[in-house]
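Protein modeling request. Please complete all fields; requests missing the sequence field cannot be processed.
Requester role: graduate student
Desired output: 3D structure, token encoding
Chains: 1
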Amino acid sequence: MSDIIVDPYATETQLVGVIPKSIINYYGLACSNYEVLMPPGVLKHLHRRGHWTDFMNYYQDIPNMIASPDYAGQNPKEPDSVELYKIMSDHVLLAIKLNPTTGLFLGSFYTLDNGTDKIDKRLRTGRIHPFSHF
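Delivered output (134 residues):
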């Protein structure tokens, strides 16, 4: 279990997890470390996009979701990113992006509607893989 504690009301950039090196290497992301940060602007984004309730339900689990996802993949429209999926009571997606200057950051967080169907389809198309693949 992680020592990282996520503050849902942070006003400063905070560490929210450490992504497995195997995932970073698989997708060829050029980053100097594997720490995932969350700038306070992401919290505003979650409010605006209607994901705040999802975030509040699971924010304490984010470090574990990042360290040990059930699935990982990449959005074909965002090559400098990784999507992590964790099945809780919902199917949760964490979008992690790479800023060449500041490193990895949590860009978004939400639960998937029809999560089982979306996971199955993304597995079939090869967009995502089970964590054991990495």
